[in-house]
User: What shape does this take?
Amino acid sequence: MSARNIPAPPINPENKRYFDAAAQGTLLVGKCNDCGEAHFYPRVLCPHCFSDKTEWVAAKGTGVIYSYSTLHRGVPVPYTLAYVTLEEGVTMMTNLVDCDPSSLAIGQRVKVVFKEADEGAKVPMFTPV
Ligand SMILES: [Zn+2]
Assistant: This one.
């Protein structure tokens, strides 16, 4: 399997902490201290109750595949886009990597891995457990 070039993520003041943590091998999700719900991606205002009492918490980094699709056409190297539902209850769009796409299944357990993108940033992706 040849490696795919991962475009550098657009890093801005709102998500810098997320990518700084990813560079250290930690996946962050947002958590609201008013309603207690987790959210993704992390942001200043809680998307459930609009409270600004949000914080960043480290996710366990494990979850299950909610849906996925492997792209073969129009890309130099096939890759698998997926929605993964984390233990924390939030679903994130990501890539499934280091696996045979034909062996994947919805509901399969996966764990986070951090893949280096262009310009050195690390991007959280998932691989089967
Ligand atoms: Zn809330």
Residues 32, 34-35, 37, 46, 48-49, 51 surround zinc ion (CB under 6 Å). The CA atoms of residues 32 and 54 lie 4 Å apart. The chain has a mean pLDDT of 93.
